[in-house]
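Input record (one chain):
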Amino acid sequence: MNNEVTLGNIMVDCEDEKKLQRFYADLLGWERCELFDRPAVRSSSGIVFLFIQEPGYVRPVWPEETGRQQKQMHFDFQVEDIQEMADKAERLGAVKAKAQFGGNDFVTMIDPSGHPFCLCRKS
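The corresponding structure, as predicted from the sequence alone:
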């Protein structure tokens, strides 16, 4: 018997759940859906991001600053063309983070709710 725990879904706190659902569906090309009465996006391989609008949501800052809301996690997306995807992300409402540490390997972006995510060169 295999007792391995598998990842089910990823819940993302935000200020506007429908807006973030649209952003990630359009950016990633994933299906918009609902799961557990929450707006969600689902990849063709079954990865699901659910979005929940939280009262009093505080946007994280990146890079981290003492005394300010820190990020709890971030997504790394593997892409064929980093610049093309960064441009697409900006058209959809993301911004390129002011601080960049990835050189030619990745670019850090900030989604419409303030979450950092990286667009990484597919290896």
